[in-house]
Design brief:
By secondary structure, the protein is an alpha/beta fold. The protein has twelve helices and eight strands. Bound molecules: S-adenosylmethionine.
């Protein structure tokens, strides 16, 4: 099932608003681009490590609102642990893929800044690789509103940390020269945001190191699924992916990459 509230908060957000700056408009355009790369996203993104979900327990029987669920990568892992998951996303095409993977999934087209859920309904609200997309002025209070007293909020990101390997330096030099991506965004202090939110407390941060084994083709699909890559005009987008292919094939001549990753998880409790 893919339900959409009749008064669409997403449509509201997409309309020109007085506070919409050029920078913010750019963000909105990039948000929309996930639907444009739904196939690449579905095929190219890695799963999250099980140890990370261990840190999120207890999940069994809990009502989990999963924001920016995309094609359902994290959704399926949460379901496997017995959570009752309601995934939501502003992208209808990515959500349809999640439903294709898990028929009957109660997926909802919704914006994390204006949620169509009742006050106090959820045990946990979480965002896998997607919290940064939600309007920073609305996401905290909206998340707190839909949680029951003592309900939990969690966000996580998996990122490559192959620092010091020459191919990784070349790859990031290329990305920074050609796109808006910046390597130092990995160091963003989510803990400070939680403490400043005024609605969440007792934050914990954990990090799970792991090795991603992926073919060069898989890496390139992941590359193509990135919003800031998808947003490039042709032929710049194609040239970038070709250059990434050159760098990765040279570094991994047998076509299999082993890349150090870290998954960073933050959990906090509703005040
Ligand atoms: C990087 S993807 C992560 C997808 C999935 N959680 C995963 O781990 O593979 C970010 C997702 O956030 C969604 N998104 C962007 N802005 C959003 C918003 N304001 N509210 C809800 N979802 C949003 C995008 O459509 C996209 O599917």
């Amino acid at each position: 099932m893919l339900s959409r509230p009749t008064s669409s908060p997403h449509r509201e957000q997409m309309a020109p608003e007085p506070w919409t700056t050029p920078e913010r408009r750019g963000t909105i355009e990039r948000m929309v681009s996930f639907d444009a790369v739904a196939d690449e996203y579905d095929a190219g993104r890695p799963d999250y490590p099980e140890a990370m979900f261990d840190a999120l327990e207890p999940l069994g029987g809990r009502l989990v609102l999963e924001g920016g669920a995309g094609t359902g990568n994290a959704t399926r892992a949460l379901l496997a642990r017995g959570a009752r998951v309601v995934p939501f996303d502003i992208g209808q095409k990515v959500l349809r893929k999640a439903v294709d993977h898990t028929p009957g999934l109660p997926a909802v087209a919704a914006d994390g800044g204006v949620l169509p859920f009742a006050d106090g309904c959820a045990d946990l609200i979480c965002y896998a690789q997607s919290w940064h997309w939600v309007d920073a002025r609305r996401r905290w209070t909206e998340s707190a509103r839909v949680l029951r007293p003592d309900g939990r909020w969690a966000v996580w990101w998996s990122l490559p940390y192959a620092d010091g390997e020459p191919w990784f330096t070349d790859y990031w030099t290329l990305l920074e020269a050609s796109t808006i991506a910046r390597l130092d965004e990995r160091d963003y202090d989510t803990g400070a945001d939680i403490r400043g939110s005024g609605v969440f407390t007792n934050e914990t941060h954990s990090m799970v190191p792991w090795i991603r084994e992926v073919t060069v083709e898989g890496w390139l699909l992941h590359e193509a699924s990135k919003s800031y890559v998808a947003a490039l005009p042709e032929p710049d987008r194609r040239s970038l992916v070709e250059e990434v292919e050159r760098i990765t094939r040279e570094a991994f001549p047998d076509g299999t990459m082993r890349v150090a990753y870290q998954t960073h998880l933050w959990i906090a409790t509703k005040i």
